[in-house]
Amino acid sequence: MMVGVLYVILAAALLFQVRFVILGDRSGEPRAGVYEQVWREAAAHEPAFAVSVGDTIQGQRDTAAAAEWQQVMRIVAPYRRFPLYLAPGNHDIWSPRSQELFRKYSGHEPHYSFDHGPAHFTVLDNSRSDELPAGELAYLENDLKAHRERPVKFIVSHRPSWLVDVLFRNSNSALHALVRRYGVRHVIAGHVHQMLRFELDGVEYVSVPSAGGHLRGSRKYKDGWFFGYTVVEVRGADVRFEIHELKAPHGQGRVTGLADWGAAGLK
C-alpha cells in the first residue's frame, strides 16, 4: 500500500508545476514605498502564493503593533488572491501580546508547515533567538519525518541561524543533519537584508534581498545590497530561482539566477 501511495506522489511530482514568490524583510528602518513596489512587481508574475521571511511590521512596542499590522493588511489587500505565508521575525514577535497578534494577522502559529502539490514548506520560529531553539529543531524533525515522501522541501525562517555553520563548512550541525536526512534542498532566511547564497553538501542556503528594510554594508548591488524579491518555479522535482531587483525608482530591474550569487555577493 505504501509503495502505491509513494508511486502516485512521485508521478504527480513529475507533472507538477508551480510558481511562487519569496519576499524579504519589509521592516528594520523601512524605506517608504519599497514594499508596495515589491508587491506590484511580484504580483505581475501571477504566483500561486507568496512566502515572507518575516519582519513584516516595525514592531517592538505592544501598544503600536495592532495598528502596524492593520497598515500592512491594507497594503496587501489588493493581492489577496495570492495566499501569503508569513514567517515570524524579531520585529513581529517580541512579547506574548505580539505573538497573539502574529497568530491573528498571519493566520498561523509561529511555526507551521504547508503543502502545495508535492512541495512541502516548513516555517520555523527563531524570532527571539539567533539560534534555532531545541523546540524548533524537534518540531522540524517531526514535521520532516511526517512529510518525508514529499520530493521537494523548503525550510523558511527569519534569522539565518545556519549562517556560521554553513560559512565554516560545518556538516555536523543539528540543522544540517536533519536537512540531509530528509532530503531538503533549499533553506531560506532573511534578517540581514542581503542577497547571499551558500552551498553545503548539495544543499543551498539562501539569504534573500530586502523588501523594504534598510540597506546596510556597501549598499552596492554586486555585494547583495538591493531591494527586490525572488520568483521560484517548481517543475516536477526541479526548482529554479530568479532573483529580481526592483525597477526604478528603487532599482534597475536586474534579474539573476541563484547560481550567480555566492557567500560574498555576485560571483
Characteristic key phrases:
alpha/beta, six-stranded mixed beta sheet, globular, 7 helices, 14 strands, 267 residues, 28% helix, single chain
Structural notes for this entry:
Helix 3 (62-76) packs parallel to helix 4. This protein has helices spanning 2-15, 34-43, 62-76, 96-106, 134-146, 163-167, 174-181, and strands at residues 17-23, 50-52, 84-86, 112-116, 119-123, 152-156, 186-189, 196-200, 203-207, 228-235, 238-245, 255-257, 261-262, 265-266. The strands form three sheets. A six-stranded mixed β-sheet has the order 3-2-1-10-11-12. A six-stranded mixed β-sheet has the order 4-5-6-7-9-8. With 267 residues, it is α/β, with parallel strands linked by helices. The protein has seven helices and 14 strands.
Low-confidence runs: none
Q: Strand order, biggest sheet?
A: 3-2-1-10-11-12
- Put simply, the count of helices is 7
Main sheet summary: 6 strands, mixed
Beta-strand proportion: 15-25%
The beta-strand count equals: 14
By oligomeric state, this entry counts as: single chain
CA radius of gyration: 18 Å
Helix content: 25-40%
Give a concise summary.
With 267 residues, the protein is an alpha/beta fold. It is 28% helix and 24% strand.
SSE layout:
Blueprint: H1 2-15, E1 17-23, H2 34-43, E2 50-52, H3 62-76, E3 84-86, H4 96-106, E4 112-116, E5 119-123, H5 134-146, E6 152-156, H6 163-167, H7 174-181, E7 186-189, E8 196-200, E9 203-207, E10 228-235, E11 238-245, E12 255-257, E13 261-262, E14 265-266
Parallel strand pairs: 1-2, 2-3, 5-6, 6-7, 7-9
Antiparallel strand pairs: 1-10, 4-5, 8-9, 10-11, 11-12, 13-14
